[in-house]
């Protein structure tokens, strides 16, 4: 007997469109916030510049990380959709199977590159190179991914060549549109890089002295690329091309919507050893909550049904008592952290709380607050780690999808 999360009515063909909209909204919001705080010049900044400084960098990173989850799910569903068609005997090609696996790996590598872009901004010199390299890798891997998916799309054209006229034309139209997007991507990417090199060659802004956080004077270039700086037109053309490149890749992802209509999410399924116990003793498995509720739940495992053998159903008193201790200690430690933090702020006389020294006042209280904060985090992580024993009885089985072969086969008739 398997334990599942239940059947969920989930329309997977929403994912590509949701991914497209989410990324576009992310870039628009970060652009608006950066413009509001006068961190960028209004005319086509680079996308990275719109998420470089706080507070827009916070919006950029958080929203982009959520979008990466959407994208990774879309890439996986595309893999499962093509895999279902192959396993259903509709496409009999070992090469397509390999392309599908490579496409899945490349899609997830692109997600990793985007994660680096989101979380390592340009404003820090020691990570700016990582940001730039990650962006280039994400662009190029995304291009290769689109090429592979276009090749797979051609397999669909061959699949539907004997289908009804409408179905055949639709498959060929989708393939042609994807070819157009791939060609447009490379044209825009070349324009983006060439114009960027031209702008860099003509850049003539003068550095000025500014005071950093440590009070030192350092030479810095102006952040905004304004029309009075050499190469401005090339910079705008380069940034415009970059936006086009990103929109093309997102639009390509959105084209999966049609194929995903043939897929239906079924469930995430697990297998549990507890299921056998359930059948013999009618022991009710309770859902997992957090903190104190978890401790209450674990208390039920201390006195199992007498028909259950100790070896099959022994979670132990130590785990329960340990969870109780963690739950009880959490609130007083949190209270200490909050009170010491507030008192430390009231006694602070320095210039920056980031560089809080013993001479700034309230230093001992700050140390107590920080120590309590670390204890809180470690307690929550340790609580999560206590689930290990229960999880030993669980085994991941599958992420289930159902492919509507009937629709595909009807199109072939």
UniProtKB/TrEMBL annotation:
Source organism superkingdom: Eukaryota
Recorded name of the encoding gene: LOC108733007
Ranges annotated as spanning the membrane: 12-36, 59-79, 99-120, 132-158, 170-192, 240-257, 320-345, 365-387
Major location category of this protein: membrane
Annotated InterPro entries: CWH43_N (IPR019402), DRAM/TMEM150_Autophagy_Mod (IPR050911)
Pfam families xrefs: Frag1
Protein name (Swiss-Prot/TrEMBL): DNA damage-regulated autophagy modulator protein 1-like
Family designation: Belongs to the DRAM/TMEM150 family.
Keywords: Membrane, Transmembrane, Transmembrane helix
Species name: Agrilus planipennis
């Amino acid at each position: 007997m398997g334990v599942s999360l239940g059947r969920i009515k989930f329309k997977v063909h929403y994912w590509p469109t949701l991914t497209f909209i989410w990324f576009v909204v992310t870039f628009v919001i970060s652009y608006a916030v950066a413009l509001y705080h006068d961190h960028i010049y209004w005319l086509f900044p680079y996308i990275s510049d719109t998420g470089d400084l706080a507070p827009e960098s916070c919006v950029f990173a958080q929203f982009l990380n959520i979008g990466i989850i959407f994208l990774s799910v879309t890439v996986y569903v595309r893999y499962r959709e093509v895999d279902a068609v192959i396993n259903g005997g509709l496409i009999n090609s070992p090469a397509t199977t390999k392309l599908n696996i490579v496409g899945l790996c490349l899609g997830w590598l692109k997600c990793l590159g985007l994660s680096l872009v989101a979380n390592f901004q340009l404003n820090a010199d020691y990570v700016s190179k990582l940001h730039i390299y990650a962006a280039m890798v994400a662009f190029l891997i995304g291009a290769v991914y689109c090429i592979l998916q276009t090749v797979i799309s051609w397999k669909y054209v061959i699949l539907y060549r004997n289908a009804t006229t409408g179905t055949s034309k639709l498959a060929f139209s989708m393939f042609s549109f994807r070819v157009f997007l791939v060609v447009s991507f490379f044209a825009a990417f070349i324009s983006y890089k060439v114009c960027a090199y031209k702008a860099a060659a003509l850049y003539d802004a003068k550095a000025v002295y500014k005071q950093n956080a440590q009070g030192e004077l350092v030479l810095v270039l102006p952040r905004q690329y304004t029309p009075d700086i050499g190469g401005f037109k090339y910079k705008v053309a380069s940034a415009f091309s970059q936006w086009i490149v990103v929109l093309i890749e997102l639009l390509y992802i959105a084209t999966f919507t049609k194929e995903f209509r043939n897929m239906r999410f079924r469930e995430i399924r697990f297998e549990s050893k507890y299921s056998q116990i359930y059948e013999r003793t009618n022991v009710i498995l309770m859902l997992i909550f957090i903190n104190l509720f978890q401790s209450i739940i674990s208390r039920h495992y201390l006195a199992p049904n007498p028909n259950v053998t100790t070896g099959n159903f022994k979670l132990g008193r130590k785990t329960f008592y340990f969870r109780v201790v963690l739950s009880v200690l959490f609130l007083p430690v949190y209270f200490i952290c909050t009170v010491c933090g507030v008192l430390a702020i009231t006694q602070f006389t320095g210039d920056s709380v980031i560089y809080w020294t013993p001479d700034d006042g309230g230093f001992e209280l700050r140390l107590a607050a920080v120590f309590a904060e670390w204890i809180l985090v470690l307690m929550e992580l340790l609580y999560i780690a206590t689930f290990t024993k229960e999880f030993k009885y669980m085994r991941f089985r599958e992420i289930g999808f159902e492919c509507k072969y009937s629709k595909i086969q009807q199109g072939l008739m």
